[in-house]
Design brief:
Bound molecules: adenosine-5'-diphosphate, magnesium ion
Strand content: 15-25%
Largest sheet: 5 strands, antiparallel
Structural class: alpha+beta
Order of helices and strands: HHHEEHEEEHHHEHEEHEEHEE
CATH architecture of one domain: 2-Layer Sandwich
Shape: rod-shaped
CATH superfamily of one domain: PAS domain
CATH topology of one domain: Beta-Lactamase
CATH class of one domain: Alpha Beta
Strand order of the largest sheet: 2-1-5-4-3
Number of strands: 12
């Protein structure tokens, strides 16, 4: 039973508890009240009958006092009839002699007969009023005494209680009926009350908790009551909010850390790659330098020796020399790359490095150059040689991205303790697919490219604790932004 109740929902428990209590109270109340009413009713009837009986006893006593024998009384039967008619509960009334012979009776045919029931016979010798409870009726006997105080008979009134009991049963029936209706109404009220003010709000809490467990931290408990449950709802909502705040804070932290980790990892990979490429580049570079030198010298020698050779031979000797020169440049770049060392910092003016770099590059004629250099740019701690190389690589890339001409804009400005340098070209742009790879060493989309320019640039800027970012749109152009920290 207890197990079954514990498995019930809160709502059912409340109803069950109320129903049990109500049932108990109403049943006890009805039964006790009905019992008391029965007893009172019985008592009232007996008192009333006693009073009537006594009246009759007195009347008969007066006549007996005159010395007239009981048997010769007249008009007694009529008086008994009248007595019986006084109350429906009075079944019969009779006068008997001490031997139990009926002298007078309200019913004519009983007169002269012997009393049959033994209980009634017992009433006769008593000299006091005797009340006998002989379920379902009461016998009330009143002794009749003559002038010498001798018992000459008794007046016996029989009160039937069946009628009263059946009336009381009817009352009980109605009382139970009304109680049942009250019981049902109370249950309905309890149902409504507990569901509206207790179970429904608790369900809200349960649903909210389930949602929150699923990860929906925006879920709120919608309880507007001003009672303890309302207070609980406020506290609950506040708790959820705090949870959400700490959760999103945590998420943000994890996101930042992960990004940092990724960056560090990428840097590490890039460094490894650079180191490997560097090693290879320096050994191959050194090995190629000598044979290239020999080829260059030989070409020079031949050119000197055969001055009158035909034009075609001269042209090929020129090509030989030019390509040797180019190969040497590539080797220099490779060796340079393998030698990117920590920057040796000095206070430098970024604007003048830009001007120097531009002076060393001859941009093709169809490119319009525009510079917007902030005159108030602070000096920053940087390695001028390395920064020069970064700018050179970027400007050359921009030029190579605009074979049909275009515009290159170079801007400098200060922002949040950083010097910001922007290179904006209107070249071919970079596809979204290539964009994440362009800082990787050896990544190139050019037939004669090496793919080291931006890798070197990134290495140098990282070494300066700066940032290098790129934005690009195919067909529209590319913007490279460098941020270098202003020293303190
Ligand atoms: N300004 C730019 N416009 C378009 N693409 C660019 C630009 N700068 C760099 N790139 C792309 O990035 C790649 C890598 O550049 P870089 O490291 O300098 O190597 P390389 O110039 O030898 O190809 C280039 O091949 C090119 O595809
Ligand atoms: Mg390049």
């Amino acid at each position: 039973m207890i197990k079954m109740i514990s498995r019930m929902s809160l709502h059912k428990k409340a109803i069950f508890a109320t129903a049990s209590i109500l049932f108990f109270i109403i049943s006890i109340n009805t039964l006790v009240l009905t019992y008391i009413a029965t007893k009172r009713y019985e008592h009232a009837i007996l008192s009333k009958t006693t009073a009537i009986g006594e009246g009759m006893q007195r009347q008969l006593g007066k006549v007996l006092n005159l010395g007239i024998p009981l048997e010769s009384f007249e008009g007694v039967n009529e008086k008994l009839k009248e007595l019986v008619s006084r109350d429906t509960a009075i079944g019969c009334a009779l006068v008997m002699d001490p031997a139990g012979k009926i002298l007078f009776h309200n019913e004519q045919d009983k007169i002269g007969k012997e009393l049959e029931d033994k209980a009634s016979l017992k009433a006769v010798p008593s000299d006091k009023i005797l009340i006998q409870e002989l379920d379902p009726y009461y016998n009330l006997s009143f002794p009749l005494l003559d002038a010498e105080e001798k018992i000459v008979g008794a007046l016996l009134v029989r009160v039937h209680m069946e009628d009263i009991h059946s009336q009381l049963y009817e009352i009980l029936f109605w009382a139970l009926g009304i109680s049942a209706i009250c019981f049902l109404l109370s249950l309905g009220f309890v149902y409504f009350f507990t569901s509206k003010f207790i179970t429904r709000p608790i369900m809200e809490f349960r649903d909210a908790a389930v949602e929150i467990t699923k990860g929906n931290l925006n879920k709120k408990v919608d309880v507007t009551a001003k009672d303890e449950i309302g207070e609980l709802a406020d506290v609950f909502n506040e708790m959820t909010l705090k949870l959400k705040e700490s959760y999103t804070g945590l998420e943000e932290k994890v996101r930042k850390r992960t990004k940092k980790l990724q960056e560090v990892q990428e840097q590490l990979i890039r460094k490894e790659k650079l180191a490997a490429v560097g090693q290879l580049a320096s050994s191959v570079g050194h090995d190629l330098r000598n044979p290239l030198g020999v080829i260059g010298n030989s070409a020079y020698y031949l050119k000197m020796k055969i001055k009158d050779a035909d034009e075609k031979v001269m042209k090929h000797l020129d090509i030989l020399q030019r390509e040797v020169q180019r190969s040497n440049m590539i080797i220099t770049e490779l060796l340079d790359f393998s030698r990117v060392s920590p920057p040796s910092l000095e206070e430098v003016d970024v604007n003048s490095i830009i001007k120097d770099t531009l002076a060393g590059i001859k941009l093709s004629g169809n490119i319009v150059l525009e510079t917007k250099l902030d005159e108030n740019l602070p000096k920053i701690p940087a390695d001028p040689g390395q920064i020069h190389r970064v700018f050179q690589n970027i400007i050359i890339n921009a030029e190579q991205a605009m074979p049909g001409g275009g515009r290159l804009e170079i801007k400098t400005m200060t922002k949040d303790n950083f010097v910001k340098i922007m290179f904006e070209d209107t070249g071919e742009g970079i596809t979204a697919e290539n964009l994440p790879k362009i800082f990787e060493p050896l990544f190139t989309t050019k037939a004669k490219g090496i793919g080291l320019g931006l890798a070197i640039a990134k290495g140098i800027i990282d070494g300066h604790k700066g940032r290098i970012e790129i934005k690009s749109e195919v067909g529209r152009g590319t913007t490279l932004t460098i941020k270098l920290p202003v020293g303190d």
